[in-house]
Write a structure and sequence with these properties.
This protein is mostly helical and about 140 residues long. It has a domain at about 1-60: Orthogonal Bundle (Multidrug-efflux Transporter Regulator, Chain: A, Domain 2). Helices cover about 70% and strands about 5% of the residues. It has a 3-stranded antiparallel beta sheet. The termini are far apart.
């Protein structure tokens, strides 16, 4: 089976990113498209890596972590080392996200309380002004 190549435009459409994003990832050694003159062609490996890059970003991984994890695939220990390190980083990130969620939940509850108090003050203010208004 031949590996279909995608142009930068096709990659942008497929992953909903800009050409600048793809060039940035290439400069950071996250992607390695085949170059023919000024033209970049992306193969199946590049598409797989792009999926992993976007997933890692969504989870809050640094680009350096993502690059390191992607490069582990080609190390002597192959996928086992890559999966093991991915699990380590993923567990660390999940713990950070869960802590942030608790902090956000507390902030949301506090803000709701503040809004309720503000609405009560406004209601009291309107009621007081209505009672003091000349008839």
């Amino acid at each position: 089976m031949t590996d279909s190549m995608l142009t930068i435009r096709q990659m942008c459409e497929l992953f909903d990113v800009t050409p600048r994003t793809l060039r940035f990832y290439e400069a950071k050694e996250l992607l390695a498209p085949k170059r023919i003159g000024q033209k970049r062609l992306f193969n199946h490996r590049d598409r797989t890596r792009m999926k992993l890059i976007l997933r890692g970003k969504r989870y809050g991984f640094s680009l350096e972590d993502i690059r390191h994890l992607l490069n582990l695939y080609n190390s002597g220990e192959g996928q086992i080392l890559q999966i093991s390190r991915t699990l380590d980083i993923s567990n660390e990130r999940l713990a950070e996200m869960e802590l942030r969620k608790l902090e956000l939940d507390a902030a949301i509850a506090d803000l709701r309380t503040q809004i309720t108090e503000g609405e009560n003050i406004m209601t009291d203010f309107k009621n007081t002004n209505a009672q003091n208004a000349p008839e």
